[in-house]
Amino acid sequence: MTAMTATQTPPASLHDPVIGWFEQHARDLPWRRPEAGAWGVMVSEFMLQQTPVSRVLPVYEQWLARWPRPADLAAEPPGEAVRAWGRLGYPRRALRLHGAAQAITERHGGDVPSEHGQLLALPGIGEYTAAAVASFAYGQRHAVLDTNVRRVFARAATGIQYPPNATTAAERKLARALLPEEDERAARWAAATMELGALVCTAKNEDCTQCPIAGQCAWRLAGKPAHQGPPRRGQTYAGTDRQVRGRLLAVLREAVAPVPQSALDEVWDEPVQRARALDGLVADGLVEPLAGGQYRLPLS
Q1: Active site residue: 35, 45, 80, 270, which one?
Q2: Given this model, what pLDDT does residue 235 score?
């Protein structure tokens, strides 16, 4: 794969068309509204990791109705966060969000901090989420690199179809070089490039006729050369431990009392894989084993 290098196109020539396109075509999403606040933005960022907007929307709205502030979530057992997470997948995100809510309540008086370093110090928050919250909630200037943004930059600036499987230092350098200087405009740019990747410059069916920077896109101008890098990771689900974990958690989420082992045994026929999945849920803190071979969602 060609190494990431700084764009030869002046960054300023990309800003106006992309931000202008965003002003006209951005989806009206609840976490983009002023009333969402920093907590609403943080909740959305946790939920949207590897999960499409259509699946997140109903869970997000229920979550914010039940827990409108971090302290409301922090006051509940972590198992309630796992229960409310439903079938969004990757349920450890629910535990991490609960842990972040507790830390916000204890360290910051219940208000999501605005400083990038303080956000990064919260449990369960990495560089991407800290930058996203600081940018989208507080209008700060940070490089926000999710999958969609990385794909837009790979194509428009670097001339390759897909970015590397893992974010590289070269990508971060490029993202910083492309940032507008003004905080508010940089935050708008971050949201706009993310939306462009989600709606137009998609992974499989890019629509260059709708792209505001098609005329400057290095990949398009090069004739859209095919991906030459390592195989892109696919996401399989059927028959995996992830599927088994999901079925076990579904039983526990729907139960109002501890669940016996026998009830969990019914969800998957293969005993070795079932036991491995259950052990993994316990090790991850998503399930709490009790005496007498019973299980429940965690209370602490």
Answers
A1: 45
A2: 66
Q: 254 catalytic, yes or no?
A: no
The residue assigned the tokens 């989208």 is 136
pLDDT score of 234: 66
Superfamily of domain covering 1-235: Hypothetical protein; domain 2 (1.10.340.30)
Q: For the chain, which residues make up each domain, given as ranges?
A: 1-235, 241-296
The per-residue pLDDT for 191 is 98
Q: How many angstroms separate the Cα of 149 from the Cα of each of 14, 226, 236, 295?
A: 14, 19, 23, 41
Can you list the pairs that 149-154 forms with residues at least 24 positions away whose Cβ atoms lie under 8 Å?
Answer: 149/175, 149/190, 149/193, 149/194, 149/197, 150/197, 151/197, 151/201, 151/203, 152/193, 152/196, 152/197, 152/201, 153/178, 153/193, 154/4, 154/219
Burial 239-249 (b: 16+ CB within 10 A, else e): eeebbbbbebb
- Whether 1-235 shares its CATH topology with 241-296 is answered no
For 88-138, write each residue's pLDDT tens digit.
999 999 999 999 999 999 999 999 999 999 999 999 999 999 999 999 999
Bridge partners, 66 (sequence order): none
Calculate the alpha carbon distances from 4 to 50, 160, 220, 226, 257 in Å. 24, 9, 16, 16, 53
CA 62 to chain centre: 18
Q: Label the pairing between strands 294-296 and 288-290.
A: antiparallel
Q: What is the CATH number of domain 241-296?
A: 1.10.10
Banded model confidence at residue 231, pLDDT cuts 50, 70, 90: confident
